[in-house]
Amino acid sequence: RWFTHFYVVSVLWNGFLLISLFRAEFLGESLPSWIQDMHHALGRDSQSKDTGNEHFSALLVLLLLWLHSCRRLAECLWTSVFSSGVIHIVQYCFGLGYYVAVGSTVLCQVPTNVRNGKKLSVQICWYHIIGVMVYIWASLHQHRCLAILANLRKSRSGKVVSLSHSVPFGDWFESISCPHYFAELLIYVSMAITLGMHNVTWWCVVMYVLFNQALAAILCHEFYQKNFSSYPKERKAFIPLVF
Fold this sequence. Notes:
The protein has helices at 3-26, 33-41, 54-78, 89-107, 120-123, 126-151, 179-194, 200-227.
């Protein structure tokens, strides 16, 4: 339930970063000095040249990250039905810091004092289109799977009738136990594609999401197998047909 706090922080913080970068790109304003200091502290050379589409790619990824946070916040508030499970204080603090750091990571991929004078239509590349398409595809499936989980605890009228666990069916649940975790990974992969696929820093973020979500998926998969004797044996834990 307290994951909601993560998305509140993400919507506010990454929304602020998105507006700041947008104003710098299209209104000619400078990024706040403390952001430039942060770039310098993280080793980003403010005098480096834009390699072509860095600014637009970062702006697009920040937008995707912000939209993702908005959707997840809305799902936490109005879709998901949470049980009485708890979160460790260390995990909670780390989660808050993560959503601050991940947006800052995107912003630090571009020089702070260089404006790209190209027109927006010229800046759109094939990897932007593919990245956004994968993002939309994964986001739709993640929402469907979260709705399936929530509906297991609701009556047909939408009233919550139970907080117990049940075996989900439908959409990607037919192949894996935790498709919402797999979709989360795909969403971050889509952002790596949107950044041009060559950004090593963001691929490190993807690797973190991979191991984090895979571990959670394994634990959930083992829970299903332990508590439901008729659980479908053909289902994998995290990646369809693989793992």
